[in-house]
Specification:
The protein is an alpha+beta fold and about 250 residues long. About 15% of the residues lie in helices and about 40% in strands. It has a single domain (about 1-15, about 55-240), classed as outer membrane lipoprotein receptor (LolB), chain A (Clam), CATH 2.50.20. The chain has a twelve-stranded antiparallel sheet with strand order 1-8-9-10-11-12-2-3-4-5-6-7. It comes from Candidatus Salinicoccus stercoripullorum.
């Protein structure tokens, strides 16, 4: 279920990937600090970052703080836009995922021609169309779908490069193979990526100054049999911890 929180088009809707590791914050040694101080005195002025300039941060500390602050929260609303293009063809899918504090989930999928509404209530999967409720045959594993579990799955981003921004923090991870995105996509999509001749891109996650995970972006470019395919996913989390009960059709 957690994958639907990131990539709905791939039957998966930014969570975990890669292996652990730290992107350490650079610090001057005592000697470096003295040299810098001396140079500054000679110049007669201090050098300050320009407006909007990003400064380095420690990805491991950021993720640890996010988990400590938000691991017990369940609810959120996630809005995602996924664009896949190749040559003159382009397909855009938009999703809205809503999770309540009661561990109920609603996913709306807009493929440009129609909107499908899916509900997961107590593990049971329902679709809602034209005023009718339809119960699907298979139950859905809700593991990993809460906001706290999503934040915990960011542990692997400790291996990324972190910067401090005006809004909070950004952590970036490069993508060079299908293994780097194995936790983002379902098995079918992973097998498709495995068959590509080349794959590269980047995944970025954003957190605010309260260490809330507020969204992310993924860009991927793959080549196969001379054809280039570009994928872009943008994701935003809002209403974190604010949805007590999910609004759903009557009699569901």
């Amino acid at each position: 279920m957690k994958r639907i929180l990131l990539f709905a088009l791939l039957s998966a809707v930014l969570t975990a990937c890669g292996n652990g590791g730290n992107s350490g914050q650079k610090e001057n040694t005592g000697e470096d600090a003295q040299n810098t101080s001396g140079e500054t005195e000679e110049q007669g002025q201090t050098e300050e970052p320009g407006e909007g300039q990003q400064s380095e941060a420690d990805a491991s500390e950021i993720i640890d703080q996010a988990v400590a602050e938000w691991e017990d929260v369940s609810s959120y609303e996630a809005r995602q836009t996924f664009t896949i293009s190749s040559g003159d063809a382009q397909n855009v899918v938009r999703t809205i995922t809503t999770q309540s504090e009661q561990d109920e989930v609603k996913v709306e999928v807009d493929n440009g021609s129609e909107v499908d509404s899916h509900y997961v209530i107590d593990g049971d999967h329902f679709t809602y169309e034209d005023g009718s409720i339809n119960e699907e045959g298979t139950n859905v594993d809700m593991g990993g779908s809460t906001y706290g579990e999503i934040v915990q799955s960011l542990e692997a981003f400790k291996a990324g490069d972190a910067t401090q921004t005006e809004e909070g923090y950004e952590i970036q991870l490069p993508v060079g193979s299908s293994e780097d995105v194995s936790s983002f996509v379902d098995q079918e999509m992973l097998e498709s990526l495995d068959g590509a001749e080349s794959l590269n891109g980047q995944i970025t996650v954003m957190l605010n100054d309260e260490y809330q995970y507020t969204g992310g972006k993924m860009t991927l470019t793959l080549e196969d049999e001379g054809r280039e395919v570009n994928m872009i996913s943008n994701l935003e989390y809002t209403r974190i911890g604010e949805i007590d009960v999910l609004e759903k059709p009557k009699n569901m």
